[in-house]
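Morning F.,

Quick status update on the modeling queue. The single chain you submitted on Monday has been processed. Sequence for confirmation:
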Amino acid sequence: MSEGNYRYRQERKESEKKSREKNRKTGSLIKKIVIVCLVLGLLSIGAGAITFASMVKGAPELDSTKLVDPLSTKFYDMNGNFIYEYGKEKRTKITYDQLPKVLEQAIIATEDSRFYEHQGIDVKRTAKAIFVNITDDFGSQGGSTITQQVIKNSFLTPDKTVKRKVQEWRLAYELEQEYSKQEILMMYVNKIYLGNRSYGVAAAAKNYYGIEVEDLQKLTLAQAALIAGLPQSPNNYDPTKPENLEAATDRRNVVLRLMNRHGYITEQQMEEASKVSVTEGIVTNNQQRMPYEAFFDAAVQEVTRKLKDVDISTDGLKIYTTLDPKAQDYAEKMLNTNEIIVYPNANFQGAFVFLDTKTGEVRAIGSGRNEYKAEFFGNNFAINMKRQSGSVFKPIFDYGPAIEHLKWSTAHLINDQKTTYSSGEPISNWDNQHHGIMTIRKALQYSYNIPALLTLREVGLEKAKGFAEQLGIIFKDDKVYESYAIGSNTVSPIEMAGAYSAFGNGGVFNQPHTVQKVIFPDGKEISFTPEPRKVMQDYTAYMMTDMMRTVVDTGTGTTANVPELDVAGKTGTTNFDEKTKAKYGYPNNATNDSWFAGYTPQYTMAVWSGYAQNGEGNYMAGDTTKISQRMFKAMMQNFGSDTSSFKQPESVYAVNGELYIKGVPSAEVPVIPKINKEDKPKDWKKNKGKDKKQKGKKENPGKGKGKEKKKHKQD
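C-alpha cells below.
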C-alpha cells in the first residue's frame, strides 16, 4: 500500500470520526431543545389552562329569563325616580314557524353562514378574528356567531376584553347544549334592535312596512334583505331617514350578494331585488313619542361616547340621568308654544342648556322647534349644533385670559381707536364709532370690538387658546385666529354653558354631563360624574363675574336681568356676509345668530336663537335678537331659588367700584372712578336693542385669496 493511499484512508477515518461526534452533539442539542420545548409547552398549557379557568370562573350562569325577557333600557331622573323604559313596548315575539324562510336565509347569510354547522363557536371565523386582533388592537375584528351574540346581548357587558370573550365562548357552547338551533335563532331575531324603534324582526316588519305578524310571509326578498342588514348599524341604515337612503341601499345589496354567494338566491333574483328602491313599501310610523327626547338623546350620546359598543336597545341598562323633569317640561313648553315666548314665525329656532353651576349636571335641554325639534337618535341642536359665538366669546378668549395671565384689574385702560387686524383688514365697533380711553369693564359692558381685539393681542393667541380649552372649548383643526376675539369661531350651547359655569363656580370647571351613572344587568356600575378641575384663579372668576354683572345691570344684557337674583352674563350676535344678504334680500341690520350665556350661583344657561338655514325671511332684526335673553330670564325666574350673591374672594379688593388683585401694584387705582350711567355713549339709548353692523372675518383675516369674508354684528 502506497504512503499516499494510507494517508488518505487515515484522514477519511478521522473525518468520519469527527462527523459522528458532531452528529452526536447536534442530536444531543436537538433532544435538549425538544425537551425544553415540551416542558415549556406543558407549562404554557398549564398556565393557559389556569388562566382560562380563572376567566371562565367569573362567567354568569345561563338564566332562561334573560334569554326570553326583553332587555330594555330604563331612564331615571336626578332623584333616581323612574321616567321611561326604552324598548319594552316595541317588541313583538314570534315563533320559528312564523319566521319567513327568506328572512331566515338573509340573516344567516349575513350574520353567521355556518350557524347550522358549529356548536356555538365558528372555529374558522374565530381563528381569522384572532389573527387580525394579534396584528391590530384587540377587539378590532369580531368573530361572533349568532349564538355568541345572544350570549353577549343577554348576559355580558360590551367590554372588548379577552376575559369577556372567553366567557362568551363558554356560555355559547353551553347554550348550544341546552337549546336547539331554531330556539337560539329565535332568541336572536326577537331581541335585536333594527332601528325605527323596532326590537325584533316582527316589530321591524310592522314599523317599516306595515306588515302584521300574521302576514310576515308577505315580506319580499328586497324587504327581508334590508331588515337583515340593519343590525350592523340600525340608525345609519334606517330607510325612513332621507339622509340614509344611499347607505341603506348599499347595505341591502351587500346582503343580497351574500345570499347569492351562499346559494339561497339566484343571480337573477339578486339583480332584480337590487333594483327595488329601499323606500318602496315604507309606511309612516305613528308610534307614541318618548318623553324628553332631547334630554335622553343627549344622555345616550354621552353613554355611547364613554362606553364603546354599548347598545341601549339590547343591553338592559339603567341610566340615571341629571334630569329635572319640571325644568324640562317648562323648557319644552317654552320652545313649542307661544305662551312663554312669542316667536316671530314657525321657522325661528332656539337651543339651550340649563345646568347646575356648581356640579355641571344638566337639568334641562331645549333643542329646536317644529320640524327641527330634537328626536331620540336625531339631530340635537343643544349638543351637536355649532354656530358662530359672537361677543359671548369675549370673556372666554379676551378678558378672562387677560386677568388670568396679565393680572389686569377691571379698571385696566385700553384705547378704543381706529385699528385693523394684523392682515390689514379693518375692524370696527357695532356703532361704527371710536370711544377713546376706557376701562375693560366698560368695553365689555357695551360689547365694543376694538378693545377686545387689543386685549387679545396683549394676551397672545396661544395663551387665549389654552384658557378657552381649559373651559371645554374645542377649536376646529386646533387652530385659532385674531377674529376669534369677537367670536368668529363656532361653539355649541353645551360647550358655552360649561365654560360660563366655571366663572360662576370660583374658577372650577365641571364637564357638563347628563348622566350620573349607568348600571348593567349584572350589577356592574359605572360613574359618569367627572372630576372637578381648577382652571383659573379665584380672582379671575370673580372679576369676570363682576364685569358681567355690569353687562346685565346696565349693558347689552338688561333684558336677561332678574332683579331678585345675582345674575352675570354676556350677549353675542353675528350678522351675514354681503353675499348672503344679496342672495336672500336681507337688510343691512339682519342678524344671523343671537346668544346669551349667563349664570347665578345656582344655575348656568347658554342660549342660542336664530334660523337653522338661510332662506327668504330667515333673519333676525330689532327685538327678535332679544329672544335668547328672554329665554334665559324665563328659566331663571321659574327655577332660580338661590338668592345668595357671588362671594368676593380674599385675593380681590375694591376701590371706587373697580376690582384689583391683591399684591399686584396698579397705578390705575387713584384715577379710575366707578362707571355710572353718565359714562354711557351719547347714542346708547338710541341704539340700544338695535342692530348695527360689525366687520370681521370668519377665519384668519387676510389669509388666502378667494376666502369668504365674514362680517360680525355685535351687541
